[in-house]
Amino acid sequence: MCIVCDINVLPDVFSSTKNDFTPIRDWVIKGKRAKFVYGGSSYLKELEKVGTYLKILKLLGDQNKTVVLDKNSVDAIEMEIKKEIDQKCDDPHIVAILAVSSCKLICSKDKKSYKFIKGSNFYSQGHHPKIYSKKSNSNLLISRNISKCC
């Protein structure tokens, strides 16, 4: 399974203290095919602001635990999304990552973005990402949620 993690959850995902997002970290690190998916200029800029997590993702990439999407592909879709989605969505880059990757899971605590994530017209037919927002969503961490990019 692959998962896109919004920047707002990375401190929890990589925390040494157990929390709602520990199952994601454990699943990716211990799972055979589980990976973090990310890419695009906007996401990378956000990652650079919290450099520790960029370093962690690069280390995981060395272990084949990440998928880094083509920056130009994500950026192009993000620009299209910005034209169509009103300004209430501050995460068009997340929708673009999901669209480019066809990733089936997103981890986020940004409840105001959920309607944009679920309702995008930019996904391929039949692609509707599920949202992991708390430990009770751990049932989503299954091999059936592995996307083609992984």
Task: Walk me through the structure.
With 150 residues, the chain is of the alpha/beta class. The chain has one domain (13-142). Helices cover 42% and strands 11% of the residues. It is built from seven helices and five strands, in the order E-H-H-E-H-H-E-H-H-E-H-E. It has helices at 10-13, 22-30, 41-49, 51-62, 71-84, 92-101, 114-118, and strands spanning 2-5, 35-38, 66-68, 105-107, 130-132. The chain has a five-stranded parallel β-sheet, sandwiched between helices. Helix 3 (41-49) packs across helix 4 (51-62) and helix 5 crosses helix 6. The model has no long low-confidence stretch (mean pLDDT 89).
* Biggest pleated sheet: 5 strands, parallel
Low-confidence stretches: none
Strand content: 5-15%
Strand order in space, largest sheet: 3-2-1-4-5
Shape: globular
What string gives the helices and strands in order?
A: EHHEHHEHHEHE
Cα(first) to Cα(last) distance is: 7 Å
Query: How many strands appear in the DSSP assignment?
Result: 5
Going by helix content, strand content and strand pairing, the class is alpha/beta
Rg computed from alpha carbons, rounded to a whole number of angstroms: 14 Å
- How many DSSP H or I helices? 7
Characteristics:
single chain, 150 residues, alpha/beta, five-stranded parallel β-sheet, 7 helices
Overview in brief:
With 150 residues, the chain is an alpha/beta fold. It contains seven helices and five strands. It has one domain.
Layout of helices and strands:
Blueprint: E1 2-5, H1 10-13, H2 22-30, E2 35-38, H3 41-49, H4 51-62, E3 66-68, H5 71-84, H6 92-101, E4 105-107, H7 114-118, E5 130-132
Parallel strand pairs: 1-2, 1-4, 2-3, 4-5
